[in-house]
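Reviewers of the previous submission asked for a worked example of the structure-prediction workflow described in the proposal, so we include one complete record here. The input consisted solely of the amino acid sequence. No template or homolog information was supplied to the procedure at any stage.
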Amino acid sequence: MGREFLDVFEAWAEKYDQAVTGHDDEYKAVFHHYEDILKNVVQKAGCFVLEFGTGTGNLTEVLAFSGKQVYGIEPSEPMRKQALKKLPAGIQVADGDFLDFPLPDFRIDTIVSTYAFHHLTDEEKGLAVTKYGRLLPTGGKIVFADTVFVDQNAFHAAIAKAKIQNFLSLAKDLETEYYTTQPVLKAIFERNGFSVSFTAMNEFVWIIEAVKR
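From that input alone, the workflow returned the following structure tokens.
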């Protein structure tokens, strides 16, 4: 994750939970069905979970209370502090990112993330998935929830719609971060030995479920 994105999350740490619960009109559509998105990721996860981009610990908390063994990775210190305030004792959230991270002391069977994978370029996404493929056993899963577009036309239409609605921060995010398309992700996962499917959760967010063959 680039320093510019990390700065955004460090500034957003104390207000993030308000945004995801629909208190920010500009991002309400992005976080629509937020709790259902978290539950869907948890339902698809195995028992031993590595989570990237824990943020304030919302997914981590649901994973832990669902009986999963979870180890979190989060590069933002303010976000880690917010997460540890709500998480059960013993849950670890380590400093790291999608490409450079420590490993837990248990064998993982699932890698999860919500609202974060788009901070990597497509090239970095490929490097990350290659690394995860080496960590996961056959049948192991990657379950990500993130903004993804069916194709480039859908991507450009979303930017245009945001500008028409005068959601200029949302439009800027879409234009400056590394949002990608389903064909690009499908190619990345398949060349690394994964079968992948996409499930729409709202206007922006899809569940990406990749199973190692």
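The first helix runs from residue 3 to 12. We consider this example representative of the routine output the project will generate in years two and three.
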